[in-house]
Amino acid sequence: MEKLTFFALSAPEKLDRIAAYLSERLTRELNRHRYGYVSIAMEAMEQLLLACHCQSINLLVESFLSTLRLLLEAEKPHLHILATNSFLKFANIEEDTPSYHRSYDFFVSRFSEMCHSDHHDPNTKLKIRVSGIRGLQGVVRKTVDDELQANIWEPRHMEQIVPALLVNLQPHESLIAVFVCSSSPAEQTEVCFRELLGRAAYGHINNAIRPVLMHLDSHSLWEGRGFAVRCFQIIMYSIQSQHSHLVIQQLLGHLDANSRSPASVRAGIVEVLSEAAVIEAAGSVGQSDEHCRICCVRVFWYTAAVCPPAGPTVLEVFNTLLRQLRQSVDYQLTGYYDNARKHKTTSPEEKMLQDAVIKTIGSFANTLPVYQRSEVMLFIMGRIPVPGIYPALGSPNAGNNLLTALPSSFLEPLLSFTLMEDPEIRLLVLSILTSLIDRRHNACRLISTRFAAFEVSALELKEDELLVLMQHAQRLYRHVFLASKEESSGHNHYRALFTLLGVLGVELANEEVLVDLIRLVLAMQELALSSQENLSVFNRCGIHAVCSASLNLLSQLGPPPALRQHVAEVTETRQKEAPYLLPDHILCEKPRIPEKELKMDEAILFKASKICEALAGSSYSTHSERINTPYTPELTDEDRLSRRKSIVDAVSLQMDMELNCCADAPQVLSEQITFETLKSAVDDRGIAEEEERKRMQLVERFQTAPFEEIAAHCGARVRTEPQPGVFFFHKVLKHQI
User: Fold this and answer.
1) Exposed, middle or buried by CB within 10 Å (0-12, 13-18, 19+), for 285?
2) What interhelical angle do 724-736 and 707-720 show, nearest 10?
3) Cα–Cα distance between 664 and 70 in angstroms, integer?
4) Which of 45, 137, 321, 347 is the most exposed place for a label (fewest CB within 10 A)?
5) Span 71-87, average pLDDT
6) pLDDT tens string 418-435
7) Burial profile 584-622: b = 16 or more Cβ within 10 angstroms, e = fewer
8) What is the rounded CA–CA span in Å between residue 542 and residue 39?
9) What is the full DSSP assignment across 193-255?
10) 172 vs 184: CA distance, rounded Å
11) Mind listing the GO biological process terms from this record (predicted)?
12) To the nearest 5 percent, what fractions of the chain are helix, strand and coil?
């Protein structure tokens, strides 16, 4: 062998004749089944390949590859393994000169076939499959970086390579006993698969992912979910991070294509999407309307509770997932997941899918920067079916903080859900509002300790005021008050109300806000005492408990110690005489309420006069007089409309009212309605709406615009149109500043 190598290096022009002779000799020995001489001939060709690093190596390669084809076409497994090992040695050689006519199509096909080996002997099957996997790995190394070689990224090659690898990623029972003694094909496959994906450029990702989706479909592997998730974990961790969104787009398109598949298949795809979103973030990126509304609000809670971009089409992701959510609700209602009503589905299966979609939307929301979260929440809110209310939300405002990007068109429809009849929706919306306001995660601290022993030192207090939310404060107060009147509220609702009030106090804490919150709490106490409200004993105890817990917290956020002393005195009296008015007895899993009607003494109530006395002589004294003014929120038309269950209910109510009016009133001739009458009514309504819109724009501008801009605008008005109203506006502005 040393003499042959020296001769080949001395006369490289004779390499083709040497290789042809060795190939001829190997073929002769192979036909005679003299496999020992076959191995010697292959070893000689391998050593010549490794020694001849020169431009003339191409003279040797063609004969070498043709010899490998002969071995791979033989029926003996040990010859397949011999050929694979020789090919791997060749694949590791870095050639100096390109080859324009070399083809590896046969090797891709043969190695892929070996990966599917079903030999009767488990040990032999294992060896053949591992050799096939290693052979594919060698083809990838030899061709992927050479633009002049065959393009293995073409679909015809990927459709052979990828399924061959995926088959060996799955555990096989027949090979379990062999795995104990040697490495499994799954380990070799994962190494090869990662290397293949790691070398994929932007234009190759789709060709590599499409066979994965086809394989999971054809073998029904979405339903198990574990294997599908593992495959895409390998994919997401292996490809270059800037290409992750291409995988997401492929999965979204596949989810749409399987919209008529069983719920278990759709849930499997959605779970894979969720895992892919988490990995991408780490690397880069009804029953009708009523049922769908619940699902969408749950989706919204996940989006609000969490915080680099998820690709170029963020809203496309959420649009696809919300569409799947709505379809699932429709399938749950009809009992079928196809239009022909041939394939049945069950409510638990669709519920499982809906939970998976909601979790996935939360995963994607977690990948978004703060400025995009407002857009996504507006987008989701626009798809919650609220009959007759806020049909269009408009475009979201831009901003760098989530709260600065909450326009009225977003907050108003969200607040309207606090007055829905469905208790689940109300509870979710209260959680959403708390999540939006709670910047330092104090909500979990408020509900994780005993109310009686609560100390404000357990909270992370703010160092800056959240001035942006001040413009929405009165709306929040009003809806907190109205939500406390709901008769169907449970202990979780009252805990959520206390948490929201506590977070408001911590985030907005200044003297004016604390006084407003105290007024709100006193108004809620009066609400619980009112005989005009149709509230149960539990409802009244729950409201009193919220008032007690809220005042205990507010009294520790800055007011004089006298206020905390008054709260402590009332709490101590309640502990002795009326423990059912304390939060530890009511805001728990098993509330303890009295069997008889409540008897309220003055000693167990918080008094506005005592609170005013406690605040007197401090910096709060300038605002304390407002405590004696009862807080009376105005009930708007939106609040009334938001309590409707559906348009049908509203129409039925309207018809009942008309029938009652007709029965009571005397018969009179009705006015003749003409086209001109209707046109006039529509025009008048349009003018009124335009005036209201301009008025709201002016109010919002006054609340949010910088002082310099407002002053410049008013100065221009004074110079051009001196009117008394302008000077009044200046006076009000100065007072507000």
Assistant:
1) buried
2) 160
3) 102
4) 347
5) 91
6) 888 888 888 888 888 888
7) bbbbeeebebeeeeeeeeeebbbebebbbebbeebebee
8) 87
9) HHHHHHT--GGGHHHHHHHHHHHHHHTT-TTT-HHHHHHHHHHHHHS-GGGHHHHHHHHHHHH
10) 10
11) protein localization to plasma membrane
12) 70, 0, 30
- Write the DSSP symbol of residue 579: G
- Measured distance CA(712)–CA(337) in Å, rounded: 62
Closest CA to 546 of 505, 587, 590, 593: 587
SS3 313: coil
Give phi and psi for 336, each to the nearest 5: -135, 145
Q: Give Cα separations from 354 to 117, 164, 261, 270, 461 (angstroms).
A: 40, 34, 15, 10, 37
Q: For residues 662-668, give the mean pLDDT.
A: 43
Higher-scoring residue by pLDDT: 183, 108: 108
Cα 140 to Cα 70, 166, 186, 200, 259, distances in angstroms: 21, 16, 18, 11, 35
> For residue 244, what pLDDT band results from cuts at 50, 70 and 90?
confident
Rounded Cα–Cα distance for residues 254 and 274 (Å): 14
Nearest CA to 131 out of 182, 82, 68, 186 is that of: 82
Per residue in 247-262, pLDDT (tens digit) is 988 999 999 999 888 9
* Residue 277 contacts residue 354 (beta carbons within 8 Å): no
Model confidence pTM above 0.90: no
Mean pLDDT across the stretch 124-138? 91
Picking from 258, 169, 197, 172, the residue whose alpha carbon sits closest to that of residue 222 is 258
Q: Exposed, middle or buried: residue 360 (CB in 10 Å: 0-12, 13-18, 19+)?
A: buried
CA distance 152 to 162: 11
The answer to whether the CB of 409 falls within 8 A of the CB of 475 is no
Q: What is the mean pLDDT of residues 215-219?
A: 92
CB 341, CB 402: distance < 8 Å: no
Rg (CA), the chain: 37
Q: Which amino acid is at 349?
A: E
Instruction: Give the separation between CA 187 and CA 185, rounded to whole angstroms.
Output: 5
CA dihedral sign, ordered 99, 100, 101, 102 = positive
Q: Categorize the per-residue pLDDT at 135 as very low, low, confident or very high, splitting at 50, 70 and 90.
A: very high
Q: What is the DSSP letter of 457?
A: G
Mean pLDDT of the chain: 76
